[in-house]
């Protein structure tokens, strides 16, 4: 079935993976809105050459409706935008409200004006905060009905966004996806995510560092699984729905994750750094997800994600995989120090703009 798809943040780690996969169906039309804050990789540049991908270099609040209505009504709109993790939000706290709350609200309103059939917003399971990480067994997973206890600026911004979205009057399906920590290979690849960076360090440094003692339980989810979930979410469910996105098998401790990486890279050593202050544990319940999409286990498990990363790393050893192009926090720190490194980054200081 031919689809029109609009993705905000379509050049990011998740957004570029979604854009690339949706565009693999030649009859689909994929429209990307992204300011290009981070320097594009060669893989992203190649992706943008596809005949059925159309790129608007901008943020949602500066895109006029007529610029996108030329593509017709949209079957699916996806918001994968925003400052993407704790490190970036801590480096740029003055921009968090704009990029993680106001811009997604603007994009949701723009999507409504374009008659979208289904709107996806990427939230985070980090909004739940923590269970006791000092226990030697897995803590009870959070359900969608549990209270929030965000521990970081990034997580706080996601809570605020969810609250604002629920205030909107919508007559189409809006899904707030509370994603686990992502893993897998993307056109805009990143090595500041647990599975990816542990695999990189195991291969290139022969060591895997486990912070906080390793008893923290976190949910993990592959890019492939997020793509499947988005495809399978129904269009006949108007209103706002919150959804945990991971599987019970992927609620694992950081220590166990390190062991899985070591099994895949056997000449690596695990080093424990128990004094790290981040002891958050927030496994999530996937009962609602499994009911909606009729799947009981991940398309790509964590071991598959590790293997994909190994292949990616081995084919790109000529690149500085530890550098700022693969790490959002490092990139922002470099951009702040050397403005020419990312001139574009500073062009999106908050300004007001409306839609037609």
Low-confidence stretches: 349-356
- First-to-last CA distance: 30 Å
Question: If strands are numbered along the chain, what order do they take across the biggest sheet?
Answer: 3-2-1-4-5-6-10
Major β-sheet profile? 7 strands, parallel
Pairing-aware structural class of the strands and helices? alpha/beta
The strand count comes to 12
Mean pLDDT: 90
Global Rg: 19 Å
- The CATH class of the domain at 4-189 and 220-248 and 281-300 and 337-348 is Alpha Beta
- Please tally the helical runs, counting DSSP H or I stretches of 4 or more residues: 12
Q: Percentage of helical residues?
A: 25-40%
| Residues in β-strands, percent | 15-25%
What's the helix-strand series? EHEHEHEHHEHEEHEEHEEHEHHH
CATH superfamily of the domain at 4-189 and 220-248 and 281-300 and 337-348: NAD(P)-binding Rossmann-like Domain
Question: Given the C-alpha coordinates, what overall shape results?
Answer: globular
CATH topology of the domain at 4-189 and 220-248 and 281-300 and 337-348: Rossmann fold
Assigned CATH architecture of the domain at 4-189 and 220-248 and 281-300 and 337-348: 3-Layer(aba) Sandwich
């Amino acid at each position: 079935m031919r689809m029109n798809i609009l993705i905000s943040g379509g050049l990011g780690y998740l957004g570029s993976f979604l854009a690339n996969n949706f565009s693999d169906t030649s009859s689909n039309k994929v429209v990307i809105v992204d300011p290009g804050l981070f320097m594009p990789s060669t893989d992203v540049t190649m992706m943008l050459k596809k005949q059925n991908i159309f790129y608007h270099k901008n943020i949602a609040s500066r895109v006029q409706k007529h610029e996108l209505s030329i593509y017709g009504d949209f079957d699916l709109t996806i918001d994968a935008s925003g400052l993407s993790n704790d490190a970036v939000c801590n480096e740029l706290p003055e921009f968090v409200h704009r990029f993680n709350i106001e811009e997604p609200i603007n994009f949701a309103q723009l999507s409504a004006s374009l008659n979208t059939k289904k709107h996806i917003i990427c939230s985070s399971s980090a909004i739940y905060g923590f269970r006791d990480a000092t226990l030697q067994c897995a803590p009870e997973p959070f359900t969608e009905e549990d209270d929030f206890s965000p521990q970081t600026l990034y997580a706080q911004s996601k809570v605020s966004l969810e609250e604002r979205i629920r205030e909107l009057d919508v007559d189409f399906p809006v899904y707030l996806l509370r994603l686990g920590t992502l893993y897998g290979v993307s056109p805009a690849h990143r090595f500041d995510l647990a599975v990816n960076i542990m695999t990189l360090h195991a291969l290139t440094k022969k060591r895997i560092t486990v912070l906080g003692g390793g008893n923290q339980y976190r949910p993990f989810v592959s890019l492939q699984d997020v793509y499947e979930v988005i495809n399978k979410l129904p269009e006949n469910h108007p209103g706002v729905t919150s959804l945990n996105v991971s599987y019970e098998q992927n609620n694992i401790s950081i220590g166990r994750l390190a062991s899985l990486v070591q099994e895949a890279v056997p000449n690596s050593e695990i080093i424990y750094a128990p004094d790290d202050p981040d002891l958050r544990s927030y496994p999530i319940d996937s009962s609602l997800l499994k009911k909606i999409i009729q799947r009981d286990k991940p398309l790509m498990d964590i071991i598959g994600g590790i293997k994909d990363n190994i292949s990616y790393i081995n084919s790109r050893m000529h690149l500085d995989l530890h550098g700022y192009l693969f790490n959002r926090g490092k990139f922002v720190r470099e951009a702040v120090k050397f403005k020419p490194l990312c001139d574009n980054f500073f062009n999106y200081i908050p300004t007001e703009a409306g839609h037609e």
